[in-house]
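If your schedule permits, I should be very grateful for your opinion on a structural question. Please examine both parts with care and let me know of anything in them that strikes you as inconsistent. The record follows directly beneath this note:
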Amino acid sequence: QIKSEFQTEEQRLDQMMEVDRLNAIEMDQEITKKRKQEKLIGAMKIMQQIRENEQDRLLDLERKDQENKQVQKYLDRLCEEETRNIEKKRQDQKNLFEELNRCNDEILRQKELAQDHERMIERNVIAFQKAKAEREAAFEKEQERIRIEKEKETARLRGLQER
């Protein structure tokens, strides 16, 4: 009987130990399960952060790309404007150069006309002086002829008076 009680007690203790062992296993499984869930939740949070960071990075890249496009557009406009300004200056310089050439040509033409006019005036003056000199010479010659004729007439009249 003692043996039987001892066996019963041992069985009860074995059962209690088995229950404790099963409880420990269950608790260990529960802890492992919780850890797995926590790891899974942690991994999901990390994945969510990675996705959010990637989305932020993509948005930032898109924003930077848009900014770069706007800056490039602005620079292109500035470049076009500068090109137009340079072309306009070049055209203005060309026009000014052409105008200066026209003015120089006109000045030379006017100078040549003035020189031609001066030469013509000089020729006219020379011709006038020559004609005047010829008239004066003819006048003096005529005066001399008249004086000689008067002297001859006077001499003839004296000659007549003396007779």
In short: The longest helix spans residues 2-162.
